[in-house]
Amino acid sequence: MHNRGTPTGGAVATPTKPKRRVRLSAGSTRAARGGALYLDDRLGLGRWLRPNLRKLFPSHWSFLLGELALYSFVLIVLTGTFLTFFYQPDPDLAFASVREISLDVRGGLLVRQLHHWGATVFVLSIVAHLFRVFFTGAFRKPRELTWTLGVLLFGLVLFESFLGVSLTADQLAFTGLREAQGLLLSIPLAGTYLSRFLFDGTFPGEVVPRLFVTHVLLVPGILLAVVPLHGLILTWRQKHTERRLAGSDESKVTGGPFFPYFAVKNGATALFTMAAIALLATFVRVNPVWEHGAYQPGRPPPSAQPFWYFGVLDGGLRLTPPWEITVGGYVLQVGLWIPMLVLAAFFLVLLCYPFIDRRLTGDRRSHHLLDRPSQAPVRTAAGVAVITFFTVVWAATWVSEIPPDPAAPSPLLAAPHDTYLAIVYGLRAAVFLLPPIAYAVTLAHCRRRAARRPV
């Protein structure tokens, strides 16, 4: 008879205990599976996740411009939270606290510059994203609401940037704020009330705590609602736009699944965005408030170039003649209104453009394929003309007249009085001449390309 319980050779096998790493891995797997099943039973996450993780997303790099803005916004929120721990929103202490953050708080200057460059990249990404959507026609049905929220987001970010720049309370910041107060006071009837509400009396009054609350609570609260609605909810619910390629169709959906394809691209984009902003913050110094000093009434502002997105208003004020009209004993500053009215009209047209385009073209169909700019020559030419107009207006901020006081800070590009006047008159003429020329040249170029490359 044979002993079936004893293996050949007479040795008995002894079970070995799994290693610690294997036990931890198995335990973590069971815990994760149990947690997922627990949440799925109560919230139904599995039914929502399965189709959404397989949702297709485009592969072209230009579709990631919105993600650049999103991750810049995340960095702004994180660095802004750090800065609020040290900033004191008091008219008498605000400048001292900013100086302390810059020179005394460990890592404070780096965080300040991360905040600044994050905001700059945020605005640049939104502008580039708007350009892509406009010139490719991605604003058309069924994405009108997404476009409208994007324009609203653009305006809020510009306003938020102005508030942040003003909070440093140095000579440069309050000089710009003083200019804003002058614009408010020029508004008929309501101007004095608006100035009183904001400044609570004489300048600067109680403007710092009010700017702080608006900058830290009010506008970010609106942004935290608009950004997810614009960038996640609406985009996720709708079919994404497609590049117009050979064999493409309005009804087809192409691209890679969200997980892992688009999730990996998003992760790489986030790391690239943070790294680029960190490099800028490390090597490029911005707004050295300790050199500008605290605000002193009547003291000339330091030599500095306005931010490009504020330079449009500043350039418009330089190019507009100082027209005044006296009505019933009241002097109306018409010259100050024109730049503000132009900007207001621009944002109003931008906000309503999907509906204006539908009315002008009569096209009420749903569009999922993007246009090449040459396929919409009128729209492309109009966009280039508007860009040309604002570029000329912005150019007016780059040259200033030599100040009469030798002790005053010298501008970056200074010119004698006669030369400066000649430049201003030349730019005034260019505002009216260059946009139509840009429109005509772009229109002819697009039509020539469309004729060579039919759809």
UniProtKB/TrEMBL annotation:
Membrane topology reported for the UniProt record: Multi-pass membrane protein
Species name: Nonomuraea cavernae
Segment forming the signal sequence: none
Location of this chain's protein in the cell: Membrane
Protein name: Cytochrome bc1 complex cytochrome b subunit
Domain of life: Bacteria
Residue numbers spanned by region Disordered: 1-26
Keyword Electron transport: yes
TM region(s), chain numbering: 63-87, 114-135, 147-169, 212-237, 258-284, 336-356, 376-399, 419-444
GO cellular component terms given for this protein: membrane
Main location: membrane
Enzyme class label: translocase
Entries under PROSITE patterns matching the protein: CYTB_CTER (PS51003), CYTB_NTER (PS51002)
Low complexity bias (residue ranges): 1-16
Gene Ontology molecular function, alphabetical: metal ion binding; oxidoreductase activity; quinol-cytochrome-c reductase activity
UniProt domain Cytochrome b/b6 C-terminal region profile: residue ranges: 248-394
Gene Ontology BP term (one): respiratory electron transport chain
EC assignment: 7.1.1.8
Gene3D superfamilies associated with the record: Cytochrome Bc1 Complex, Chain C (1.20.810.10)
Start and end residues of each Cytochrome b/b6 N-terminal region profile domain: 35-243
